[in-house]
């Protein structure tokens, strides 16, 4: 095995020499001061040059201690030197030594020695949370594994007040959706994989690359100011242990998917997820499209995952420098099947303009490659991270029923098929550095390059209607299809490049008599330089309805769209710019832009006493966002610019009631930028809805305040209660405008929105027992956790403001309503049992539950009610057992309740728009507009570690 590791290391790094290390950490209490923390004591590892001093909380940490058994020595003025023997240090683990020290050697009491892993564990993250002045929550790799979480998107929903929108992957933090959050990797920004979204979809990140996920719900001026809900920071794995190779495999099924009689996908894409296809030559004059319009039957839909992890660390240059390497590669696929009802364009009379039974076959892939190299010499550390992600989503969508109650298939019998393949490729390079210069000066820096390509090659849509409208079960044809765009092939590509950097310097001052510093000042600079380029070409197949047309079978469309029928003049191919006779017909629609953010900040932190600490700071950001376009809505093209300078103050206060309890307060001002898709007048078409951008969209300003009490009864326990409030000026919403097609756009819909709420979190060890055996301590424990957030949200709706600022006709049903995506209640709970049978044999069982209450999906207009996403509970069971030193197996069963996923348009109830000039009628009866079930997911996994 060493030969394998050496070969890999040689290929990447050159010849090095290995040595394994761990960490000794713990807490020292003063018996003479009623067991208060004993700060500034010296802790020394005998026989080495390793040592540390305890801090204000009596905490100490001694890293990079070579593997072995040591005697730990405590020294403090006025106290006799005390030795604690038999402290066992293991590779990549922390030996925790908690002690109580009296005035003489005889008073050394309550020495507790146990082993925990590093920052991936709950104990380390809770300690970090306790010490922080800001309100930060983290979830580590240990907790993710315990709850059977496989992706970052699901991981963050385990944090108080966070939920995910079904079907979109949107993350809502305290009721605030995608636009109000920011996603970073190791503190540096990530691009979005969707032109309509600000953040990259977190579900594409496999948790195998994660050490911890930090969720900052309060603003720190060290971060970019485009923030309102949370800064979600993914910390990639930083390996420090001995060499290993681990191979993993899993396989599973979904009951809805396997219950389908057959499974169908589209023609063209392979199962690897790396498919691409270009626009054919001469697409307007000849039928040169090679892929079929018709669905393709595929093999048994079994989900699978295969992964490879490896890592090692080495001491080089005489042992003064440590080099660490880590890599992970994985491929997973997932099949899903949905069937249900889908309705659109519901009127105030609760009548749907379109009414379908739908069937959706989907196949998704995720390919992840990540590697990092870290080198540490003394108090200097430099690390390089590289990440490659390739995600694909292939869908065969079929809709049967009424396409348009006033036009196409008004009595039913209509058929719409969409064959979709979407692919996202992300390449990220990061270089990070941390340098301690002396005892009171530190420099931290980081730079990143991101390249993202998102493509949707060769989307195909087919629309067929009954040859005779009042015979819905009769033969179908293209003759009465009303729009050329209803039958099309669509090609799009999004390219995004970004260079970002952070630089900060910290100076500690006012050294006290205990040789520590009461204050520190941090100054820094951050920048983002982003370029976005989106292009799309849609080939519309315009059927001539003034001539006789043949009937067509819904699964034999190739028999109609072909070269013969094109030559016969049954249809022609055109783009939005025109036909073959238009010189620039093949010029794509596009929008492109640059975004530049230059910012500087200063933070001042000062401990006025051992109990009270202040952190005050301010950030200034110069923001410039330009966009230019040429689209079907504005073929002649235009451009727009958003240029502003924002001053963003923040204040955080921490008061330590005692060694286990804190009260924290935070307030700040931030902003929210509109996204490129929201500002570009580009028409995006879905089956039931069209969207276009609003070039007059402006940013929102956010004011945030938090107050929180937290208690840490034990190292792995927490009880916290908090309240928060948010005021958003000039909020942005998706709205339906008054037009023939009821298109959706984005606008600043009112003067302000507010969100107020309370949060509760409890993590408790119900029982814990350790039995000492030869060379091992066997653990038996039962732990439980619960977190919940209750929120009240409200926003003003002002149609006149939208008309004045954007020239758009928006008539809201309500004068005020809740914030879209905000549930009144979001809750999580889990119960976990762990038992050691021997040193290398254990089992862990976890039951995890999540619930969110009803929330607004879209705002009602013209007298129609809001569209509501119905709240659902989910329950998952996860079992994991280590059979030997090398073999681990797992079993998970998810979505055990299998509730119906539903959206409905509500009956109007609230403060309605009473403008007498509008004479609005209001919807009196609710109607379901979407309903389906996801099924149960069952998975079996196996991992072998060399």
Model description:
With 946 residues, the protein is mainly beta. It has 8 helices and 51 strands. It has a 22-stranded antiparallel barrel. The chain is globular, with a radius of gyration of 30 Å. Mean pLDDT is 86; it is low at 1-18 and 104-117.
Write the layout of secondary structure elements.
Blueprint: H1 2-12, E1 21-30, E2 36-37, E3 42-45, E4 51-53, E5 59-66, E6 68-76, E7 79-89, E8 93-101, E9 109-117, H2 122-131, E10 136-140, H3 141-146, H4 152-156, E11 162-164, E12 171-173, E13 182-185, E14 188-189, E15 210-216, E16 231-236, E17 244-254, H5 255-259, E18 264-265, E19 296-297, E20 303-316, E21 321-344, E22 354-377, E23 380-402, E24 414-437, E25 441-466, E26 476-477, E27 488-511, E28 517-543, H6 563-567, E29 571-574, E30 589-607, E31 612-630, E32 638-658, E33 661-672, H7 676-679, E34 684-685, E35 690-691, E36 700-711, E37 718-729, E38 732-736, E39 744-748, E40 752-773, E41 776-796, H8 799-806, E42 816-817, E43 825-838, E44 841-852, E45 855-858, E46 867-869, E47 872-882, E48 887-894, E49 900-905, E50 927-933, E51 937-945
Parallel strand pairs: 1-8, 13-16
Antiparallel strand pairs: 1-2, 1-5, 3-4, 3-6, 6-7, 8-9, 10-15, 11-12, 13-14, 15-16, 17-20, 17-51, 18-19, 20-21, 21-22, 21-50, 22-23, 23-24, 24-25, 25-26, 25-27, 27-28, 28-29, 28-30, 30-31, 31-32, 32-33, 33-36, 34-35, 36-37, 37-40, 38-39, 40-41, 41-42, 41-43, 43-44, 44-47, 45-46, 46-49, 47-48, ...
């Amino acid at each position: 095995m060493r030969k394998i590791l050496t070969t890999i290391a040689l290929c990447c790094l050159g010849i090095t020499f290995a040595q394994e290390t761990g960490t000794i950490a713990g807490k020292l209490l003063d018996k003479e001061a009623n067991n208060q923390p004993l700060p500034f004591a010296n802790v020394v590892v005998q026989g080495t040059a390793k040592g540390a001093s305890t801090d204000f909380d009596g905490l100490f940490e001694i890293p990079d201690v070579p593997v072995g058994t040591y005697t730990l020595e405590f020294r403090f003025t006025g106290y006799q030197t005390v030795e604690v023997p038999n402290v066992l240090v293991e590779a990549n683990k922390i030996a925790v030594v908690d002690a109580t020290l009296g005035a003489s050697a005889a008073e050394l009491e309550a020495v507790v020695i146990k082993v925990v892993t590093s920052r991936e564990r709950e104990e380390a993250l809770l300690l970090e949370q306790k010490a922080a002045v800001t309100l930060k929550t983290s979830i580590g790799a240990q907790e993710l594994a315990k709850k059977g979480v496989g992706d970052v998107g699901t991981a963050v929903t385990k944090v108080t007040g966070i939920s995910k929108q079904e079907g979109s992957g949107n993350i809502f933090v305290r009721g605030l959706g995608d636009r109000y959050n920011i996603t970073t990797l190791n503190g540096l920004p990530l691009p979005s994989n969707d032109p309509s979204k600000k953040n990259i979809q977190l579900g594409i990140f496999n948790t195998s690359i994660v050490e911890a996920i930090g969720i900052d719900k309060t603003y720190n001026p060290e971060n970019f100011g485009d923030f309102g809900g949370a800064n979600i920071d993914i910390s990639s794995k930083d390996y420090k242990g001995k060499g290993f190779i681990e191979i993993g495999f899993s396989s599973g099924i979904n009951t809805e998917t396997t219950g389908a009689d057959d499974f169908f996908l589209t023609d063209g894409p392979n199962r690897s997820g790396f498919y691409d296809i270009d626009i054919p030559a001469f697409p307007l004059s000849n039928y040169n499209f090679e892929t079929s319009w018709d669905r393709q039957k595929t093999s048994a839909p079994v989900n699978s995952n295969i992964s490879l992890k490896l890592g090692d660390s080495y001491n080089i240059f005489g042992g003064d420098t440590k080099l660490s390497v880590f890599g992970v590669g994985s491929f997973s696929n997932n099949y899903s099947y949905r069937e249900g009802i889908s309705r659109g364009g519901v009127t105030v009379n609760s009548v749907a303009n379109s009414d379908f039974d739908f069937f959706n076959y989907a196949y998704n892939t995720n390919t992840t490659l990540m590697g990092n190299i870290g080198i540490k010499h003394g108090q200097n550390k430099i690390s390089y991270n590289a990440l490659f992600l390739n995600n694909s989503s292939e869908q065969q969508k079929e809709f049967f029923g009424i396409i348009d109650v006033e036009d196409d298939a008004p009595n039913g019998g209509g058929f719409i098929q969409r064959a979709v393949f979407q692919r996202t490729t992300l390449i990220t390079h990061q270089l990070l550095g941390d340098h301690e210069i002396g005892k009171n000066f530190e420099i931290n820096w980081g730079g990143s390059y991101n390249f993202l390509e998102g493509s949707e090659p060769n989307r195909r849509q087919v629309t067929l209607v009954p040859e005779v409208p009042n015979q819905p079960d009769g033969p179908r044809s293209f003759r009465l299809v009303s729009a050329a765009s209803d039958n099309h092939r669509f090609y799009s590509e999004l390219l995004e490049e970004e260079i970002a950097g952070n630089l900060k310097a910290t100076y500690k001052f006012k050294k006290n008599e205990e040789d520590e510093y009461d204050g520190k000042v941090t100054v820094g600079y951050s920048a983002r330089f982003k370029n976005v380029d989106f292009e799309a070409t849609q080939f519309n197949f315009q059927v001539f309805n003034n001539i006789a047309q043949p009937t067509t079978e819904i699964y034999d469309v190739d028999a109609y769209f072909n070269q013969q029928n094109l030559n016969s003049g049954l249809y022609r191919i055109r783009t939005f710019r025109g036909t073959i006779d238009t010189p620039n017909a093949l010029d794509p629609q596009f929008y492109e832009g640059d975004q530049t953010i230059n910012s500087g900040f200063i933070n001042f932190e000062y401990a006025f006493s051992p109990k009270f600490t202040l952190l005050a700071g301010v950030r200034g950001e110069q923001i410039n966002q330009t966009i230019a376009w040429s689209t079907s809505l504005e073929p002649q093209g235009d451009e727009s610019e958003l240029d502003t300078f924002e001053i963003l103050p923040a204040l955080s206060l921490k008061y330590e009631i005692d060694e286990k309890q804190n009260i924290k307060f935070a307030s700040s001002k931030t902003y929210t930028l509109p996204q490129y898709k929201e500002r570009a007048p580009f028409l995006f078409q879905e089956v039931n809805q069209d969207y276009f951008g609003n070039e007059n969209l402006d940013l929102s300003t956010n004011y945030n305040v938090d107050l929180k009490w937290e208690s840490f009864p034990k190292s792995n326990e927490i009880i916290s209660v908090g309240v928060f409030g948010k005021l958003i000026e000039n909020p942005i919403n998706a709205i339906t405008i008054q037009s023939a097609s009821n298109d959706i756009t984005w606008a600043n819909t009112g003067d302000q929105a507010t969100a107020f709420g309370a949060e509760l979190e409890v993590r408790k060890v119900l029982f814990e027992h350790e039995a000492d055996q030869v060379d091992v301590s066997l653990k038996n424990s039962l732990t439980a956790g619960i977190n919940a957030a209750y929120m009240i949200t409200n926003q003003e709706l002002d149609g006149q403001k939208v008309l004045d600022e954007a020239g758009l006709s928006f008539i809201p049903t309500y004068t005020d309503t809740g914030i879209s995506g905000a549930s009144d209640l979001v809750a999580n709970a889990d119960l976990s049992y762990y038992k050691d049978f021997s040193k290398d044999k254990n089992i862990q069982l976890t039951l995890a539950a999540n619930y969110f209450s009803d929330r607004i999906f879209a705002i009602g207009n013209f007298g129609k009610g809001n569209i509501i996403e119905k709240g659902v509970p989910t329950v998952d069971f996860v079992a994991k057992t280590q059979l030997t030193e090398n073999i681990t197996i797992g079993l998970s069963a998810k979505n055990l309740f299998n509730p119906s996923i539903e959206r409905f348009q509500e009956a109007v109830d609230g403060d309605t728009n009473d403008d007498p000039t509008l004479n609005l009628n209001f919807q009196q009866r609710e109607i379901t507009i979407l309903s389906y079930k996801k099924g149960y997911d069952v998975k079996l996994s196996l991992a072998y570690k060399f």
